[in-house]
């Protein structure tokens, strides 16, 4: 067993006092695999991380900056500084890790927001499937139906986050159609009402929704001037008023 491997094991298994002592003793020579073991140790405290950050060689290594940004005991000032230089996949991990302080998670979300315009559709789809509410609120405005379709797969998506898109009269028709066809969201009653009333919903989609609405909501559709005439007429027929 080499000295490096032995040190990794000791760092991984150390108790709080021993870990701090080992880090202080070896901080000037620690390598990335050893730092990984430090950060995986449940006794990696704020004091331990301060010792690591004190070394320019360590705090400028991208892999370490990424791990420190996500560590719950990294001092906030350091974590916020590290977030700025992360790749979008790393930002996504920080923003969705509930162990990370909220202020750091929000900073990661803002960094993703800033980069979205420069990302490819495939990259935005990957983010849409995993992101938290803060990023989803931004992605729901994306003009690509593929991104909206990926967003619908996200288990963190809530009706409250989705409804502004459902009711948006500038939304892409294909995005609204994707919502209507979605197994999880297309059967939600409030979503159906919103889609039926949105003039951007494809006509056949809106007409297919009407039979599933309650009379009071059909009546609202008949009185909504911004709803297209064929949809209003069909709602009247279903109410027996035509």
Number of strands: 0
- What is the N-to-C order of secondary-structure elements (H for helix, E for strand)? HHHHHHHHHHHHHHHHHH
Strand content: under 5%
- The pLDDT mean sits at 94
Can you summarize the main beta sheet? none
Class by alpha and beta content:
mainly alpha
Q: Helical region count? A: 18
Low-confidence stretches: none
**CA-based gyration radius:** 26 Å
Specify the helix fraction band.
55-70%
Q: How many domain modules?
A: 3
Kindly report how far apart the N and C termini lie.
Answer: 87 Å
- Name the overall outline: elongated
Question: Describe it for me?
Answer:
By secondary structure, the protein is an all-alpha fold. It has three domains: 1-60, no CATH class; 86-157, no CATH class; 158-242, no CATH class. Helices cover 66% and strands 0% of the residues. It contains 18 helices and no strands. The protein has helices at residues 3-13, 16-26, 32-40, 46-53, 56-59, 62-70, 76-83, 88-95, 102-115, 121-130, 133-139, 145-151, 159-166, 173-181, 189-197, 203-209, 215-223, 229-239. The longest helix is centred in the middle third of the chain and has 14 residues, at 102-115. The protein is elongated and about 85 Å long.
């Amino acid at each position: 067993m080499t000295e490096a491997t032995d040190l990794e094991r000791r760092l991984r298994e150390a108790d709080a006092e021993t870990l701090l002592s080992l880090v202080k003793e070896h901080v000037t020579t620690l390598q990335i695999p050893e730092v990984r073991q430090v950060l995986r140790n449940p006794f990696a405290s704020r004091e331990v991380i301060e010792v690591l950050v004190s070394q320019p060689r360590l705090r400028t290594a991208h892999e370490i900056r990424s791990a420190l940004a996500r560590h719950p005991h990294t001092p906030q000032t350091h974590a916020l500084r590290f977030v700025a230089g992360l790749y979008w996949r790393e930002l996504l991990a920080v923003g969705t890790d509930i162990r990370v302080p909220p202020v750091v998670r929000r900073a990661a979300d803002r960094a993703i927001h800033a980069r979205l315009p420069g990302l490819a559709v495939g990259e935005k789809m990957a983010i849409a499937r995993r992101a938290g509410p803060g990023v989803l609120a931004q992605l729901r405005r994306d003009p690509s139906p593929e991104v909206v379709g990926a967003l619908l797969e996200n288990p963190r998506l809530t009706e409250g986050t989705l409804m502004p898109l459902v009711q948006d009269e500038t939304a892409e028709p294909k995005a609204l159609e994707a919502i209507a066809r979605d197994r999880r969201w297309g059967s939600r009653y409030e979503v159906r009402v919103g889609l039926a009333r949105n003039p951007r919903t494809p006509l056949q989609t809106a007409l297919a929704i009407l039979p599933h609405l309650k009379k009071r909501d059909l009546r609202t559709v008949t009185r909504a001037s911004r709803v297209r005439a064929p949809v209003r007429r069909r709602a009247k027929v279903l109410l027996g008023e035509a």
